[in-house]
Structures are given as C-alpha cells and as structure tokens.
C-alpha cells in the first residue's frame, strides 16, 4: 500500500468525505551521485554562515528575509497552523465546471484519492454524480504549508486530484506567433495529422533514452567500449509544402497494406443429361 501524502475531508455543501491523497506518478530516471575525480562522494553540510560550524537539523528554523540588511522574522509550526482557516484544513469544493474549461498549462501534480473509513458511500455518490453530469470540481486546501488550488476528477476506478497553478504563477508566451497560412499547406498539414491518428495507449511508450543509458552503464561496468548511437539521416527538404507531402508519403508507407482476397470462385459445371 503506497504511503498517504495528505489527509483531509472533501466538503461540498454540508457533505464531508474523509479522504487520503496518494501520489499518482513517480520519476524513474536514473539517479547519479556527484563525485570528485578520484571517485569520492561529494558531501553537502549545512553550516552556519557566521561561525562556519555544522548545524544540527533540530536547530534549523524557517525565516523570512524582509530587508536588504539580512533581517529575518522567524516562523514556527504554530505560526503556519494559525494562518490556516477552517476550510484550509479540509478540501473545500468551490464550484463544478467542465474539464475543457481548465487550460493544460494549469495542471501540476497528480494524486489518487481514496476514501477513508466511513467515507466510502459519500465518495461513491459524489464520483457517480460527477460522471453523470460530466463535471469536475474546483477546490482549495493547504498541503505542507502551501495553499493549493485543486481539480477533482472522477475516473474509471475512483477519483483523482490534480493540483493547479494559480493565475499569477503562469508565465506569458515569450513572443506572439503570427504567420500567413496558405490553404494548400493547411490542407496537407491536416492530411498528415489524419495519417498519424491513433488511440493513446500508454503501454506503447517507453523512455528509450533511459534504456540506452542503462546499457552504457552496464557496458562500462563490464569494461566494454561505448559505441555512440547512429545519427538519423537528415533530409534536404526545405520547402514546407514539399516537406508535408514527403511526410504524408512516409506515413502511408508505414501502414500495412490490406491483403487481397485469395478466395477463388468455384466454377460450376453443368452435368450432361
């Protein structure tokens, strides 16, 4: 059973549903340690800037710098708790909306949501009602001293919570995109998209880079020579329309051709009387 990340109660109206949040994703990238060139580990120690002495974790506190002259105000656990309202201690639903109304850029961390003991019926009721109405819920809570905006979404097996960025955390596009699009080019681009359409199946994808990196690590451990991956051949296509046409042709060549029917019609012979 995975470890619960956060416990609270989803509330909408006067209904309260005790739930636990569990991280829905994990990072499988290979991890590396920093070493000196003689293969010794690099160590990081927390030291006091005024004395240079290492500081015990129990003597470390949180401070907010409020001036250029290194003046800090210290906040304790009680200070963080006192900042929470009663609603912050739970998961308070603000309203319901359509999933399409939330731009993808707002999505951050994913969590599975599971009901705690006594909340199973209300949990199932809320989930089914949201499925029937095709709605998600927008909610707020505090997780680890950080105020979070949430999207609560029903799934096939239960519900998920997606933490959302606030509007002031979203950066603007670095530059505007303006270009004249020719109709034949647009038509060909749509044709290329259609030739590449298929259902999303997560089992079809893997991190090939991590696989190759593991092979290199294993080869180095075994003392083998490392061979670089073969670079892809670059095309000399410069014209956009020509590139689109070549791409459509390439996609068509990847698809298996329909087999011709090999069933032969039986010839009928007339019997002589």
Written overview of the protein:
With 273 residues, the chain is α+β, with helices and mostly antiparallel strands. It is 23% helix and 23% strand. It has a domain at 1-27 and 81-169: Ku70, Chain: A, Domain 2 (Beta Barrel), CATH 2.40.290. The protein has helices spanning 77-82, 120-133, 183-195, 208-221, 240-254; strands at 6-12, 15-23, 62-65, 72-75, 91-97, 107-115, 136-143, 146-154, 159-164. Strand 3 and strand 4 (72-75) form a beta hairpin. Helix 3 runs parallel beside helix 5 (240-254). The N and C termini lie far apart (83 Å).
Task: Give a topology summary.
Blueprint lengths: L5 E7 L2 E9 L38 E4 L6 E4 L1 H6 L8 E7 L9 E9 L4 H14 L2 E8 L2 E9 L4 E6 L18 H13 L12 H14 L18 H15 L19
Parallel strand pairs: 1-5
Antiparallel strand pairs: 1-2, 2-6, 3-4, 5-7, 6-9, 7-8, 8-9
Summarize the structure.
Helices cover 23% and strands 23% of the residues. It has a domain of 116 residues: Ku70, Chain: A, Domain 2 (Beta Barrel). It has a seven-stranded mixed β-barrel with strand order 1-2-6-9-8-7-5.
Total strand segments: 9
Shape: extended
Secondary-structure element series: EEEEHEEHEEEHHH
| Average pLDDT score | 86
CATH class of the domain at 1-27 and 81-169: Mainly Beta
Determine the N-to-C terminus distance: 83 Å
Counting DSSP H or I runs of 4 or more residues, the number of helices is 5
Assess the beta-strand content as a share of residues: 15-25%
């Amino acid at each position: 059973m995975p470890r619960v990340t956060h416990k609270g109660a989803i509330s909408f109206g006067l209904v309260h549903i005790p739930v636990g949040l569990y991280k829905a994703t994990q990072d499988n990238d290979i991890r590396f340690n920093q070493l000196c060139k003689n293969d010794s580990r690099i160590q990081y120690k927390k030291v006091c800037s005024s004395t240079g002495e290492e500081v015990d974790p129990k003597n470390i506190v949180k401070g907010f710098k409020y001036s250029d002259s290194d003046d800090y105000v210290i906040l304790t656990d009680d200070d963080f708790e006192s900042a929470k309202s009663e609603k912050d201690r739970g998961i308070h639903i603000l309203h319901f909306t359509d999933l399409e109304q939330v731009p993808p850029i707002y999505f951050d961390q994913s969590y599975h949501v599971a009901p705690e003991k006594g909340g199973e019926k209300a949990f199932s009721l809320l989930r089914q009602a949201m499925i029937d109405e095709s709605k998600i819920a927008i909610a707020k809570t505090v997780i680890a001293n950080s105020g979070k905006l949430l999207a609560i979404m029903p799934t096939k097996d239960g519900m998920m919570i997606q933490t959302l960025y606030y509007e002031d955390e979203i950066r603007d596009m670095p530059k505007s995109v303006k270009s004249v699009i020719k109709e034949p080019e647009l038509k060909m681009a749509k044709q290329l998209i259609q030739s590449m359409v298929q259902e999303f199946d997560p089992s079809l994808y893997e991190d090939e880079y991590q696989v190759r990196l593991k092979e290199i690590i294993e080869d180095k451990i075994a003392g083998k020579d490392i061979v670089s991956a073969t670079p892809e051949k670059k095309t000399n296509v410069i014209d956009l329309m020509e590139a689109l046409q070549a791409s459509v042709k390439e996609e068509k060549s990847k698809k298996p051709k329909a087999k011709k029917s090999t069933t032969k019609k039986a010839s009928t012979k007339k019997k002589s009387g």
